[in-house]
């Protein structure tokens, strides 16, 4: 499939008489896809049962007629106000038990059966009407699951559903008590109906209780999504998509993705660097108008895995947004760079969000390709340039030499029991990813149940709370190189310490006898860098690769299977990963700061995230510039 | 009217047998006014209908008999505990929906009709009894509206009243939906009774919704105050006063002030610098025992406008207070300096708070003119000195050469939608005010509906969300100099982006094509300083006065009407305002740090806020000193 | 009594068939005591009335049979889930009014009569069964009162009880109104049932109201504990113990201790330094794996006073814990050092917490003497070493030359009314204690109602809100040296400013005319150091010992009774206390950083808290080392 550009559009926001002109301008700009409809429920059904689909018919006609391919969104992220009158208890509740009220979006609890039935109803109506419409060439279900911390709900509906879930999973209260270790602090239950949600306890609740609630909450998202997917499948052959967010880990995207055809995500590089990434202030200032040089690539690679190869950017930042603490404008060139980077990572489509900046409501300060007065915003010209450049370039994806395992359940495990205040699973994986990328590598991301690990020269599995048997087999296979740890295989599925002690790698005589979390400033010198944040004391006779300056083991191994007993800083990670790459026969090229590389089957792409030109091996790439060469 | 000193006194706190002695000492100290009664409801009406006015009769007799002029407060800021039994739902609710309980003060919701009726009842009783008492020469209504964040209430009473307010303002739900842009995210309402207050939404509520709630909340204060003013007018000719607070912006003081005769405010320079002003730590330490050199003057000038020329300091800090995070003592001399500064800005009266430090309850660590053991506190001697000095000095106010527009609704707009985390309207205006004062200027403050703008050589309108037509006319009049912006005329009354794009100044070909908010450290070099926090990209052919180092326009103009496209730091503001003053024919004299000047019709006053003497143009003014010269 | 080592054990966590082996290993390690049972209610009474004591019988048999002495805990800190079904309103409520739910521990309100009756019932059953069991040689009542901020409850049960308490204390609403100064802000009550708890008020509630609630809350803990103690006394002669926590000040430990025979506390040096002590980051990093050099000693001395000479460490940290923000491992040697330090301060027993690390539930990352796989954890060998060393060393306690008064009510007073944001009573006393210890001194701690003050050469009474008459008598006795202040005798029992003004020391002509709290950076130079945080202006003719650089009095005195008018930093405190010690004939020896000394009747002990060896007067003490010499 040839990749394409697109845009998000809200016909219901504008007078009908501008739709045609908008459509023409989109096509003229080189756009192919247009996503519509995902927040329009109050205009499709202004009161219960009063269906008003005519305007949508017409909008699809106009857009499709102009040559655009329509992605139609189901509107279930924004139930109308009357839904609350019908289902007053459908709201999610926050951890303080307060209902999360109407007035913005995502105001529903994933466990509310009445609301799920309403979603089924409206999706059935849409699928029946548009499932075979030739212009509707893809469907988006709901919008940004989990955004605004909406995965976890502490509502009565969630409590009921969680009790049922526990009953199904554990079958008897005794089995649950044993699994969770409820003998500790007399937390035994005699009946599933005694189990509350793990909020507002006097002090820390049982981590097994929290972890069960986290698994349950993720599964509720999967079920909610599946209810719509099943209906759509009956009426359409067009691919089903969801638009995920950046650094939202509260539900298992691989599980949701299994019911869909394409993964997509909403990429806001500047907002994410400011609001969602943990980075030093000087890094945030250096890349203020560009975004973090690895954040987009990481999510591209992650969602490529979630989509089993098929993925989009459904929303691409085109200018300043409205929702970060501060909202600077992208450097000239970034709207082009971001799109090219997505294509280099295999995106089938990149849709800018949104066509015309809305002068009203929550996102009125969110830029579009057009200004509110319909004049071109700066990103429009860059989109046009990308569209033209794409005509001359054909490429295809290839497997990366290196892979990292990414596991949502591990994020929940370490959030449940960080043991050190700054132990964030995302940061641990992202640090490793960044270090690989600074060595000039392309990286694939794999789910924990992957059967592809053996296809890579080097596989990393940092912080994987529970290592599935099949993966352990693959990683400990002596014919490939792998790096496990830190804090890998450290918990059972029920969030307890396994016996024998971790990491329990076949053939590796090493046990974690003690763990330490370390505050900022308490760094342990190792080679060219330090261990910080987390350090494990190892015992056993496994051969050492790396030790601390004081002689404690840091990396041990059996053949090509390495175990890392702490969280390396950038310098140590660079040193260690270089060595492992060499061992694995993976060629590395350390890159200047802010420059990144991505290899496809045919080309090597360079992306300069700096605000100044950078020269590397004779090439000079301008500020915010993209460069590609045949491989 | 000759200005005078006064004091706040609580006869109900002390045995009757000390009243006479207190009154005599007040008179001996040179005090003229005494404010009483504003928290005494539980002693005036210990149980419902059981009126106990005898003690107040006597207190007024004693004080008035000693020659003091009494300001009588209505006691509605502190309803007695039995009021809650009668009206259990009268409490305000915080943004979390929790009732704000009895046990301190201001425990009422401005929208509760039952409580308003009780206020009418008690004020009628007081007005009937004391409206013609010759000693009662002024009335204070309630106390410090909005203090402790009490303007906004999320109670059921507020919700009902807000729905009525919406119904009156918009007439139909459809009109409201259109005005707010509720099509966005399916937020349409079919009935006014569906509208909730904008709290506890899943994410950001519609800014138009919030802004409507802010306007409503301000109007509720106006109505509450008016209910009392109307009753008092029927029974007395004495002037009506309210004592406003420092940096409380949640209601429109101009609107409340329109129903009153005199504006007054409660000036706590040291507490405000520590607790309410945003300033670097070194600034806070430098002026630790003096207060910010501009904060008092700013509020004096603001409340002079609110009082349409008539204003007081109703409460003047005399020593350490109890409510700031830290509470140091004023430098010797400050209790005098503050009083003189108020008189130089036109105060009719300055009343110290309070006569004798109470040894009990919340403010027991709040200094008075007397200590709890009735010995003189340090400020008493300074008050005596001021009283003596006033006998020798007569002065009168005159118009300042420069004015700044101050608009409460703009504070709400930018609080509703800051777009940058540190975009505070107060700080923007105050930065401009400070820069003018550092140039040695006296400044007037004007409301946005002023018709006096044309009387000034230079008028500034920074951050004015919506420029009223009349004001725009005056500011763009080529015969006067004005500086508009940044972020001026950037929103409609309904909190959307106007068409055409801002600033839309007649005759000025400039449009804001893009806005950026900038985090700390992301400064844009301009001339002698920088733009920080906020920067607007301008397009159009307007003539430039100032550009960034990279060549983007910062100040453009048509004739004498200038538009400023960013938030200047101190250095840039000084450079820019010097230039505009020169252009406008306003003479400037840069002052040493901590020294400030105020011109009256007859004198130039110097105030040294430093803890060390300062020399300026041959004059040496001692630490915490005041100096005046004939003009 | 010869001191002994012990351990905390949970037979209910492990299969019965390992109990015997565990017991044997305990005895082999040199342990004497084993504490059991304190969280086992759900296994003792799985459903209401279904008593299952067999397993406990057997566990006591096995442990006692192996030669161990059993401490049996009452299980009232962890009521089973069915208790909530019986008493749904038994939960405490937090300051926001939210019930603090089941799911961890300490989920009860001290004021709930129904739950207290349940506690009486279960304790009666236990006492009847084990009161004369020869293996049960001590009893622990409940567990860590006040931990997780559980002393204060804002539940309906607490509200009812508080009203009764007020009625009993004040007898009439008028008396209460007078005592609290409720005339201020019309806060008068007409009926005790009108009194709410002092939470969720609009702004600061009356400090007298808060202070009454604090006294009430403390007394509820005393009563709760006494209810169990009275029952146990009827059935056993074994000593009664409670295990207090570090830096928990919410209830009066002296009052609880009066009903018990032995005080004990739970000592987690590394967790406390990280989580509960206020100290600069570099200090926290320096002692990261050792704990603060004075924190343990301070609590040892405090609980020796609470236990009237008899005290234990009931839980001793053996390795990394799970509950601090970061959890590093102790340096090798610290598990020995901590135990020896406790014995040097007079502990009768030191019990490590816990025997075997549990692989499940909340504390699965909390180290024990055994690892989860039953292998020895590092601390076990250190415990063995201590056990062996104890056989060769006999010592006895002696009175220290210096004492400090410690008063829980003062902690409440200054928390109620800090006046400066960093005015913490604990820190003030601890600063003084640290300064004495750095001078090489052993220190005793005394309660405010002590009659032993006259036995010390020097007594300090910093921050004592209300000085009891008897203590004032002793401190102002010219035959001994005392240091009173700052902020001593500054409040009445009802939290108002006393008349005459403080400190009101017999024979000392000094009054606090004004107080200042000072933010960080606002230091007042005095001698070799500074006053920071708090400074009092003194008037009167008392002789001065120390003045500020500007000449204000800092220390005044009459004979040997000194009053200190500010909070000294470390340098000033060292200078001042050296001088007072000299005056009092107390010999001082300034110690190197991290080295501390404790004298018993027979030996001088040295404890090196540094991570490196330290040499002092010819002795070199290794890192984390202990050294003792005959005196």
UniProtKB/TrEMBL annotation, chains A, B, C:
Pfam families: Glyco_hydro_42 (PF02449), Glyco_hydro_42M (PF08532). SUPFAM superfamilies: (Trans)glycosidases, Class I glutamine amidotransferase-like. Keywords: Glycosidase, Hydrolase, Metal-binding, Zinc. Its EC number is 3.2.1.23. Residues 400-586 form the Beta-galactosidase trimerisation domain. InterPro entries: Beta_galactosidase_Trimer (IPR013738), Class_I_gatase-like (IPR029062), GH (IPR017853), Glyco_hydro_42 (IPR003476), Glyco_hydro_42_N (IPR013529). This is Beta-galactosidase. It comes from Candidatus Rhodobacter oscarellae. The lineage of its organism: Bacteria, Pseudomonadati, Pseudomonadota, Alphaproteobacteria, Rhodobacterales.
